[in-house]
């Protein structure tokens, strides 16, 4: 259907290129990365210096990341950090930092390649396989700098599957053992949300929101945590 739409929509280049991005994603879902990168690159060229072109460039950078070509991926991501749309710039910055913080420690970068391959599995909605691989990674690369990222990704995947208890275990592990790492406040905030929204335990949720404000005064979750506390206390909010 997308191929037909691309053939019939030649009068509207933006429509064609949006269809091409979807088609590229489908190729990636089918484990055909070369076809995907070809399609994304076409959109990069036809939509140069536009949000759609930046979107195509980001997808190509992620594809290179999935394939373990971290150097090339980071080069593109560092350019995209200056993108005109905040969402693309933020996505580029987060992935660039992940690559920067977890590469260069060994020549093979096997742990990072394994982590990237799991993210591809999740993109392809192969969640059970992803859980299994993340569990293997925790055993195989114990003590690696990626450990908190692996735990957090597994927690998010458990939540996607509705497995709240296992998600809480991973978030609690980050909270107890990796609280000073970059995902410490993410784990604290997500754990508080689970107590508030899933378990209906407002007192425990409020305790964690308050702890987040004390432990991570500069956290991006600070503003929302304050709102959550006021709401749980029943304060009148104008």
List keywords for this structure.
75% helix; 13 helices; mainly alpha; 238 residues
Structure, explained:
Helix 5 runs antiparallel to helix 6 (86-102). The mean pLDDT is 94. The chain has 13 helices and no strands. Helix content is 75%, strand content 0%. With 238 residues, it is mostly helical.
Helical segment count:
13
Shape: globular
Uncertain segments are none
Mean pLDDT over the full residue set: 94
Set down the secondary structure blueprint.
Layout lengths: L1 H7 L4 H17 L3 H14 L4 H16 L3 H11 L5 H17 L7 H14 L3 H14 L6 H14 L3 H14 L6 H15 L3 H14 L6 H12 L5
Tell me briefly what this model is.
It contains 13 helices and no strands.
């Amino acid at each position: 259907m997308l191929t037909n739409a691309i053939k019939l929509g030649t009068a509207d280049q933006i429509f064609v290129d949006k269809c091409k991005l979807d088609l590229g994603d489908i190729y990636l879902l089918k484990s055909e990365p070369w076809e995907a990168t070809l399609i994304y690159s076409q959109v990069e060229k036809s939509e140069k210096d536009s949000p759609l072109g930046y979107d195509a460039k980001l997808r190509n950078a992620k594809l290179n990341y999935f394939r373990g070509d971290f150097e090339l991926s980071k080069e593109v991501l560092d350019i995209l950090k200056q993108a005109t749309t905040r969402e693309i710039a933020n996505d580029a910055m987060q992935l660039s930092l992940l690559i920067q913080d977890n590469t260069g420690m060994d020549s093979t970068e096997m742990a990072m390649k394994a982590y990237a391959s799991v993210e591809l599995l999740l993109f392809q909605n192969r969640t059970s396989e992803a859980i299994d691989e993340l569990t293997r990674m925790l055993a195989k690369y114990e003590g690696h700098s990626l450990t908190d990222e692996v735990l957090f990704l597994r927690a998010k995947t458990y939540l996607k599957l509705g497995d709240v208890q296992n998600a809480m275990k991973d978030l609690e592990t980050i909270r107890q053992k990796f609280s000073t790492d970059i995902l410490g406040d993410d784990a604290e905030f997500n754990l508080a949300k689970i107590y508030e929204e899933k378990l209906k335990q407002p007192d425990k949720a409020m305790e964690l929101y308050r702890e987040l404000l004390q432990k991570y005064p500069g956290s991006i979750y600070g503003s929302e945590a304050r709102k959550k506390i006021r709401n749980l206390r029943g304060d009148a909010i104008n």
